[in-house]
Structure formats: structure tokens, C-alpha cells
């Protein structure tokens, strides 16, 4: 048997954007049916409920700040790695260098920050933004708080901007609520 770490740690898996919840459901089912409950503990889609003003109506919607990513707490054994990466909709692990190499786990402070973001469920309603595509904004709340990024698109219906930020060493487009960004002067 290969040298394996038997500590549970958090990893980020890539999925097709928009399929995060189906990947979570598929993986949770596979954990049970393949007897992996001692190795794979939690699967979390980093989303939360937010209040938005849409067409003059206030609604509570689920918002995913990390499209295409799902968090999984697991012990990185060969078997657990196989179950996760062969789950329908999973395209790979973040931090895996290919060629069968095991991925790098998240740092504890990264996990704490992401899980706190998921648990933070209320936010002020902001229905406009004083910025344009190409403008640089500062992220004022959430997992990317304190980071700057460039707006690549604006969705007034969802009250969101897509911002290109540096996430775990990679430029990643992420949707952020108008309430969580401030234009940089």
C-alpha cells in the first residue's frame, strides 16, 4: 500500500459550472454505496442564501461565489481519491499536478474563511453598482475580502458582477454581489 496520510483534510474539486449541487448529491450517494463514510466526511457547495431586489421584488436566492468548485473533507487514501475523482461531473482536483499525483489540501485558514462565508447568510440589498466592465473593484466581504479584481461582466438582473480574481494562485472569474464590491478610485 502506498504511503498515505490518514488525517482528514479539505480539498477543492473542479466541476462543470452549474453542476456543483448535482456533484454533491452524486458524491454523497457514492460515499454511502461504496462504503467510504470512514474516509470522506463532508461535501460542501460554497453557496449561501442572500436577499436581492429583482424587478422591484425582494427575493431570497442561493448564490455561489465559487462556480465550478466543491469542497470535500476527506482522508486522502487511494480508494477515497478514486471515488471522488470518478464521480460524474467531477473534472479533477485543484492542486493536482496530473499524472496520478495527489492534490494539495487547503490550508486551515482557507477552509475557515470559506466555511464562514457559507454560514454568513444575510446581506444588505444593493440593486445597482457605480462601475463598468474593465473597472477594478475591491471585494469588501466574503471569501475574497480585501482582494482586487477586474470586472468582466455586469448582471443587473441578478445584481452581480463577474470579477477576475486570483484564487489559490489562479485567475478565476467569480460572481460577486453588488453589495460585496466597491470600485477602486
From TrEMBL:
<dbReference type="GO" id="GO:0032784">
    <property type="term" value="P:regulation of DNA-templated transcription elongation"/>
</dbReference>
<dbReference type="Pfam" id="PF00467">
    <property type="entry name" value="KOW"/>
</dbReference>
<comment type="similarity">
    <text>Belongs to the NusG family.</text>
</comment>
<dbReference type="InterPro" id="IPR043425">
    <property type="entry name" value="NusG-like"/>
</dbReference>
<feature type="domain" description="NusG-like N-terminal">
    <location>
        <begin position="7"/>
        <end position="118"/>
    </location>
</feature>
<dbReference type="GO" id="GO:0006353">
    <property type="term" value="P:DNA-templated transcription termination"/>
</dbReference>
<keyword id="KW-0889">Transcription antitermination</keyword>
<dbReference type="InterPro" id="IPR047050">
    <property type="entry name" value="NGN"/>
</dbReference>
<dbReference type="InterPro" id="IPR006645">
    <property type="entry name" value="NGN-like_dom"/>
</dbReference>
<protein>
    <recommendedName>
        <fullName>Transcription termination/antitermination protein NusG</fullName>
    </recommendedName>
</protein>
<dbReference type="GO" id="GO:0005829">
    <property type="term" value="C:cytosol"/>
</dbReference>
<dbReference type="InterPro" id="IPR001062">
    <property type="entry name" value="Transcrpt_antiterm_NusG"/>
</dbReference>
<keyword id="KW-0805">Transcription regulation</keyword>
<dbReference type="InterPro" id="IPR036735">
    <property type="entry name" value="NGN_dom_sf"/>
</dbReference>
<feature type="domain" description="KOW">
    <location>
        <begin position="130"/>
        <end position="157"/>
    </location>
</feature>
<comment type="function">
    <text>Participates in transcription elongation, termination and antitermination.</text>
</comment>
<keyword id="KW-0806">Transcription termination</keyword>
<dbReference type="InterPro" id="IPR010216">
    <property type="entry name" value="Transcrpt_antiterm_NusG_myco"/>
</dbReference>
<dbReference type="GO" id="GO:0006354">
    <property type="term" value="P:DNA-templated transcription elongation"/>
</dbReference>
<dbReference type="InterPro" id="IPR014722">
    <property type="entry name" value="Rib_uL2_dom2"/>
</dbReference>
<dbReference type="InterPro" id="IPR005824">
    <property type="entry name" value="KOW"/>
</dbReference>
<dbReference type="Pfam" id="PF02357">
    <property type="entry name" value="NusG"/>
</dbReference>
<keyword id="KW-0804">Transcription</keyword>
<dbReference type="InterPro" id="IPR008991">
    <property type="entry name" value="Translation_prot_SH3-like_sf"/>
</dbReference>
<dbReference type="GO" id="GO:0031564">
    <property type="term" value="P:transcription antitermination"/>
</dbReference>
Amino acid at each position: 500500500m502506498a504511503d498515505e496520510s490518514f488525517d482528514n483534510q479539505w480539498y477543492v474539486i473542479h466541476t462543470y459550472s452549474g453542476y456543483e449541487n448535482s456533484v454533491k448529491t452524486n458524491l454523497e450517494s457514492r460515499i454511502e454505496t461504496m462504503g467510504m463514510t470512514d474516509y470522506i466526511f463532508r461535501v460542501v457547495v460554497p453557496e449561501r442564501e442572500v436577499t436581492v431586489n429583482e424587478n422591484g421584488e425582494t427575493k431570497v436566492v442561493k448564490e455561489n461565489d465559487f462556480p465550478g468548485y466543491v469542497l470535500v473533507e476527506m482522508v486522502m487514501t487511494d480508494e477515497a481519491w478514486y471515488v471522488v475523482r470518478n464521480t460524474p461531473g467531477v473534472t479533477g482536483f485543484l492542486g493536482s499536478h496530473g499524472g496520478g499525483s495527489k492534490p494539495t489540501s487547503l490550508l486551515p485558514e482557507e477552509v475557515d474563511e470559506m466555511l464562514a462565508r457559507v454560514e454568513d447568510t444575510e446581506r444588505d440589498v444593493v440593486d445597482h453598482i457605480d462601475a463598468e466592465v474593465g473597472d477594478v473593484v475591491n471585494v469588501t466581504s466574503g471569501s475574497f475580502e480585501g482582494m482586487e479584481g477586474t470586472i468582466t461582466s455586469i448582471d443587473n438582473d441578478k445584481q452581480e458582477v463577474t470579477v477576475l480574481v486570483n484564487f489559490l494562485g489562479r485567475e478565476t472569474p467569480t460572481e460577486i454581489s453588488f453589495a460585496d464590491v466597491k470600485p477602486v478610485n
